[in-house]
Amino acid sequence: QTVVTQEPSFSVSPGGTVTLTCGLTSGSVSASYYPSWYQQTPGQAPRALIYSTNTRSSGVPDRFAGSILGNIAALTITGAQADDECDYYCVLYLGSGISVFGGGTRLTVL
Amino acid sequence: QLQLQESGPGLVKPSETLSLTCTVSGGSISSNSYYWGWIRQPPGKGLEWIGSIYYSGSTYYSPSLKSRVTISVDTSKNQFSLRLSSVTAADTAVYFCARRAHTPIGFARFDFWGQGTLVTVSS
């Protein structure tokens, strides 16, 4: 079974930069997996931040950037703000109609 | 603006079947550009994709849930539904419905979500 891996938690200082990662237990992540990233605050539905590796959804500030770094997908947040503190999920499309979510990263800004 | 709304019982007994419906408004479910799916989130845990359906009825399921899941679509009502059989306490979760793009731009992204509905499995 394919498992998508993310750091369970990460911490960043206000104004700092953080890179969250999204990998596969077997194999490398590439653009052909159409990596997307979602932001979820408590009690809310997830919000799409990034799709197709590096395209920002409408209204998402350019502080959020997606990329492929080697064999993983990455979400980089620059100039971290207090309201960036929430959960972040990556999703990979495995083909044949199947999507898989990563376990999520809880980001703390302090 | 597209909106999705989940509905269904908030409490299901163990071994019974969980049934939820997602009503789509502000757009047609019969679009060849999108799939319609279900995602769940157990309390305090991460998101899990359950499956998706195309307006034609083609379905795609998570391998880990495939034996218990059925997703169907009713284009006349602009709705799609989830049935999860033989539920246990481990199926207690917030269930979200969402649209997944099948377009060259934004392929496979979940761009619109319902607010989610909590389903508790308990006797």
Describe the protein's architecture and organization:
The complex is a heterodimer of chains A (110) and B (123). By secondary structure, chain A is mainly beta. Helices cover 0% and strands 50% of the residues of chain A. Chain A contains no helices and 11 strands. In chain A, the strands form 2 sheets. In chain A, strands 2, 4, 5, 6, 9, 10 and 11 form a 7-stranded mixed β-sheet that branches. In chain A, a hairpin with a 6-residue loop joins strand 4 (36-40) and strand 5 (47-51). The radius of gyration of chain A is 13 Å and the shape is globular. Chain A starts with a strand and ends with a strand. With 123 residues, chain B is mainly β. Helices cover 0% and strands 50% of the residues of chain B. Chain B contains no helices and 11 strands. Chain B has strands at residues 3-7, 11-12, 18-25, 34-41, 48-53, 59-61, 69-74, 79-84, 93-101, 110-113, 117-121. In chain B, strands 2, 4, 5, 6, 9, 10 and 11 form a 7-stranded mixed β-sheet that branches. In chain B, strands 1-3-8-7 form a 4-stranded antiparallel β-sheet, with no helix packed on it. In chain B, strand 9 (93-101) and strand 10 form a beta hairpin. Chain B is globular. Chain B starts with a strand and ends with a strand. The mean pLDDT of chain B is 96. Chain A binds chain B through residues 1, 34, 36, 38, 40, 45-48, 51-52, 55, 57, 87, 89, 91, 93, 96-104, and chain B through 35, 37, 39, 46-49, 52, 58, 60, 62-64, 96, 98, 100-101, 105-111, 113-116.
